[in-house]
Amino acid sequence: MASHIKINRASGTWTVRAGGAVLGETTEALELTEGDYPPVIYFPRGDIAMAFLDASDETSHCPHKGDASYYSVVTKSRTLKNAVWSYENPHEAVAGIKGYLAFYNMDEIAVEQI
Questions:
Q1: How far is Cα 75 from Cα 51, in angstroms, rounded to an integer?
Q2: pTM confidence score
Q3: I want to staple 84 with a disulfide (CB 3.0 to 4.6 A). Which of 24, 45, 71, 80 is the partner?
């Protein structure tokens, strides 16, 4: 793994909410830290209500993690474009995040430890 990336199990129970709806809750979250960036919580796909997410055409590339695909979150009042990302086929060094989803930190989305 790139020496500046660490993946650890996030202790406790984590939830993600958007537009007043709970999108998911898990005790199997991962915490990814990368250099000086704030930690990111990754949720197992199986613990997220995928009915709230629409796959996007957006992609990005990280030289350390690989190619990311994106999802938009559909709430009652609006669509939060490209608010979720996933590494479907991450580099071997970060293979632990395969099958997990991460959510951008924004006013309309709350990722919290409960």
A1: 11
A2: 0.94
A3: 71
| Biggest distance spanned by C-alpha atoms of the chain | 42
Q: Which residues contact 62 (CB under 8 A, 6 or more apart)?
A: 68
Q: What's the CA angle centered on 101, arms 32 and 11, to 5 degrees?
A: 50
pLDDT in tens, 60-92: 999 999 999 999 999 988 999 999 999 999 999
CATH code of the region 5-113: 2.170.150.40
Give the start-end residues of each E strand in 4-99. Answer: 5-9, 14-18, 21-26, 30-34, 40-44, 53-62, 66-74, 79-86
Interacting residues of 44 by C-beta distance below 8 A, sequence separation 6+: 26, 28, 29, 99, 100, 101
